[in-house]
């Protein structure tokens, strides 16, 4: 009745063993990708651009090694920790590009899956908010307006990707988070600009009184 069962099971076991080995190798590399991407963003915010560029190259190499480890394991290529680490790499590359005035790298240039790229773009909003707040703290609120516009542009872009999560891999939730970040940043920047105008008017008034 079960003729051939052992041979079938043995073949499946070999396949599962191969998948497990590939997963273990890719998982270790994925953690390294996430760490490298985090360091890229840290250096970029500190304007340590040479260090950021060097770390970004390492993140790229690690990402490609991770994907190469899964070349024979398409079951593991999409989603899960692979998608998450690709997303972090994309975010780091785009934050570096945005804060150094370079064109955004395409998914093809980064060698990543499209959903990872668009989800990475959604998380750039949070890093741009951080940059806007840094500019406000250093009395550069007018300059920060351009970054708020970029945040709004990203939000409108990801909002247009109205697909089920099985396709967009969580983008809908990230678009909701991006909207909140944009709204809070707009409020912070508006307050800073108003305070700056008030301060200038007071100085002008003081100057007139002094005359």
Short summary:
By secondary structure, this protein is mostly helical. Helices cover about 85% and strands about 0% of the residues.
Descriptive overview:
This protein is mainly alpha-helical and 211 residues long. The protein folds into 2 domains: 13-107, Methane Monooxygenase Hydroxylase, Chain G, domain 1, CATH 1.20.58.2140; 113-211, Methane Monooxygenase Hydroxylase, Chain G, domain 1 (Up-down Bundle), CATH 1.20.58. The chain has helices at residues 5-45, 49-69, 74-77, 80-99, 107-110, 114-137, 141-159, 165-168, 171-210. The mean pLDDT is 91.
What CATH first level of the largest domain would be assigned?
Answer: Mainly Alpha
Element order: H for helix, E for strand: HHHHHHHHH
| Number of self-contained structural domains | 2
Give the proportion of residues in helices: over 70%
| Number of β-strand runs | 0
What is the mean predicted local confidence, pLDDT? Answer: 91
Distance between the termini: 107 Å
Q: Which architecture of the largest domain per CATH?
A: Up-down Bundle
Would you identify the regions where 5 or more consecutive residues have pLDDT less than 50?
none
The portion of residues forming beta strands comes to: under 5%
Write down the Rg. Answer: 23 Å
Biggest sheet record:
none
Name the structural class.
mainly alpha
In DSSP terms, counting alpha (H) and pi (I) runs of 4 or more, how many helices?
Answer: 9
């Amino acid at each position: 009745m079960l003729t051939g069962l052992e041979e079938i099971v043995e073949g499946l076991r070999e396949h599962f063993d191969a998948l497990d080995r590939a997963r273990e190798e890719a998982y270790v590399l994925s953690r390294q990708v996430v760490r490298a991407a985090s360091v890229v963003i840290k250096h970029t915010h500190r304007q340590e651009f040479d260090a950021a560029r060097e770390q970004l190259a390492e993140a790229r190499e690690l990402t490609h090694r991770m994907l190469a480890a899964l070349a024979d394991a398409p079951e593991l290529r999409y989603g899960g920790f692979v998608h998450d680490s690709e997303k972090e790499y994309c975010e780091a590359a785009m934050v570096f590009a945005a804060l150094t005035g370079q064109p955004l790298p395409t998914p093809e240039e980064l060698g990543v899956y499209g959903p990872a790229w668009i989800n990475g773009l959604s998380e750039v909003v949070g890093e741009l908010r951080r940059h806007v707040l840094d500019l406000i703290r250093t009395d550069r609120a007018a300059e920060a307006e351009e970054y708020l516009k970029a945040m709004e542009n990203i939000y409108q872009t990801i909002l247009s990707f109205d697909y089920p999560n099985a396709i967009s891999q969580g983008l809908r939730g990230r678009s909701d988070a991006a909207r909140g970040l944009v709204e809070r940043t707009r409020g912070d920047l508006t307050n800073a600009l108003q305070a700056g105008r008030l301060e200038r008017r007071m100085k002008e008034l003081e100057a007139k009184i002094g005359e």
